[in-house]
Write a structure and sequence with these properties.
Order of helices and strands: HEHHEHEEHEEHEHEHEHEHEHH
Largest sheet: 8 strands, parallel, barrel
Number of helices: 12
Strand content: 15-25%
Radius of gyration: 18 Å
Number of strands: 11
Helix content: 40-55%
Strand order of the largest sheet: 1-2-5-7-8-9-10-11
Shape: globular
Structural class: alpha/beta
Oligomer: single chain
Length: 295
């Protein structure tokens, strides 16, 4: 583990850019960027286009470590290059931004009011590759849709089982048990979630530490104790379907919670924009998210 990167993640000012749309979410991300489905004729062409979009974001002069602590990458992005350098190397060496890797393979069908992660074949090989490419940590997402304790327990247990495997490779896991913002009795679901997270934190070995990526809670400061927990490097928030303005407003009411936004970060960017327009739009987005994360 890189000590300088760890210090940046522990105490740096800023937020995490989630640039990890995968095969299922890429067409929607490209459409939001002004590139429609008729612009490609194969999955390979689609991923070429999304890599061009990510490269434009990452190389933009507004995308700096002044406000961005880290970026979460999709595996194919990690495997590609930016300006002749592996993406993770470019992020750290040129931008001083810590690289993370999304490792989940999407969600299973709903059961017990939740969607667990699908199996991740050859995970150890992927984690070895991530280490070799200079990745600092991983991110893995599952979703809570109903306030059912049995389902929420299964989500958290699966997340921490995977986290132990990630820790075994010297990487830092970002555990993401998202509570859907449309969940009925969301506050109840978040209470159960917090109880289950604390139980799993108690099972970590001495010195093991994780990060958490959570929906901005229904009740302000609900995760204050997690933010202060020495076993938790950082608690970050997903935008979860809120507009950027709404997500930032809610985030600003939760001191110590920082953003890890995807769609909300890229909102307003377009392939048709001039470089000047693109930079101005991205800069305004980054500034707004950074202010909310600093509150």
């Amino acid at each position: 583990m890189n000590d300088e990167q760890l210090t940046q993640m522990e105490s740096g000012a800023g937020f995490i850019a989630a640039l990890d749309q995968s095969g299922g979410s890429t067409p929607k991300a490209l459409a939001g960027y002004g590139i429609q489905a008729d612009a490609w004729h194969s999955e390979a062409e689609m991923f070429d286009l999304v890599h061009q979009m990510r490269t434009r974001v990452i190389t933009d002069p507004a995308f700096t470590s002044e406000h961005i602590l880290a970026a979460i990458l999709f595996e194919m992005t990690m495997d590609r290059e930016i300006e002749g350098m592996p993406t993770a190397t470019f992020l750290w060496d040129e931008k001083h931004i810590v690289p993370f890797l999304k490792i989940d393979k999407g969600l299973a069908d709903e059961d017990q009011g939740v969607r667990l992660m699908k199996p991740i074949p050859d995970l150890d090989a992927l984690l070895d590759k991530a280490v070799a490419k200079g990745i600092f940590g991983t991110k893995e997402r599952s979703v809570v849709l109903e306030a059912k304790p049995s389902g929420i327990r299964s989500v958290v247990r699966q997340q921490f089982d995977l986290a132990h495997q990630v820790l075994g490779h010297g990487l830092v896991p970002i555990i993401e048990p998202e509570v859907d913002i449309h969940t009925v009795d969301r506050a109840v679901a978040e209470t159960v979630l917090l109880t289950e997270i604390n139980a799993c934190l108690d099972e970590l070995a001495e010195g093991q530490r994780v990060m958490l990526k959570l929906t901005i809670p229904e009740r302000d400061n609900f995760y204050a104790d997690l933010i202060a927990d020495p076993r938790v490097i950082r608690v970050v928030a997903l935008s979860g379907g809120f507009s950027r303005d709404e997500a930032c407003d809610k985030l600003s009411r939760n001191p110590g919670l920082i953003a890890s936004f995807s769609r909300a970060l890229l909102q307003g960017l377009s392939a048709q924009q001039s470089d000047e327009e693109f930079t101005a739009t991205l800069s305004a987005s980054i500034e707004e998210i950074a202010r909310a994360s600093a509150s």
